[in-house]
User: Fold this.
Amino acid sequence: MNGIFDVKTLTDGQFDVVYNVLSFGFACMLATTIYLYISTGRVLPKYRQAITISGTVTLIALYHYWRIFDSFVAAESEGSFNEAYRYVDWLLTVPLLLLEAVAVLALPAVNRKSLISKLVPASALMIVLGYPGEISDMTSTKLIWGGLSTIPFLYILYVLFVELGKSLEKQPPEVAASIGRLRILLIATWGVYPISYLLPVLGFTGPDAFVGRQIGYTVADVLAKCLFGLTIYKIAKLKSAQDSPEYAKAEIGE
Ligand code: RET
Assistant:
């Protein structure tokens, strides 16, 4: 049944849970997009791109949650629910999330380009390799593609923790602490995706695995996109205040 889950097999209670979770995801993306876009002017110009990218990530997700929600509701009568929207969403938003994290650091161009040239292709590869396993009902297929997708996943973590760690030493302590928290947030939320993916392998079957996966992916999306974007905004404000006393006085009152 190739990536298509038959929604008619859900109980009414399960249907409502997924319905509400998807609706919650949509509301979070909508609110965060508006908030981030109207806040771009509240940081110094060199940090604005990071905020704009963060708002664009939630805007792309807003569109996809609307499509996912629509497809889920339509599937109540037609049956089939397609998981491809999520993977298209991730294919666009995961590289952008990494770009926004690199952009807010305002690193020298060589460091920035080197990080981007590693992180962006690796993140796209991670999503593309995960998809064949996501849409398969066979445990072996899920494990093989999941395993392949884990290689770029681990590589991304290596780049973020080892290579980025070196440039953290050059940041002021308060900023370095915020960036440290950003990385913890990233690993804690990104880790939810492979766990949700593995639910069918871990013994959850049919509708239970479907409901668990929708909750896991949606909650992780809200944390990885909205909370992450808002943390980027906080870092941009901190760095703006460090860079400019006038800004600090006007924005933070210090
Ligand atoms: C897959 C397949 C199984 C193995 C791994 C995966 C990792 C997925 C990740 C997704 C992150 C998505 C984000 C979306 C938010 O915008 C593809 C589930 C490792 C890490 C951050």
Summary: The pocket of retinal is lined by residues 90, 93-94, 97, 126-127, 130, 146, 149-150, 153, 190, 193-194, 197, 221, 224-225 (CB under 6 Å).
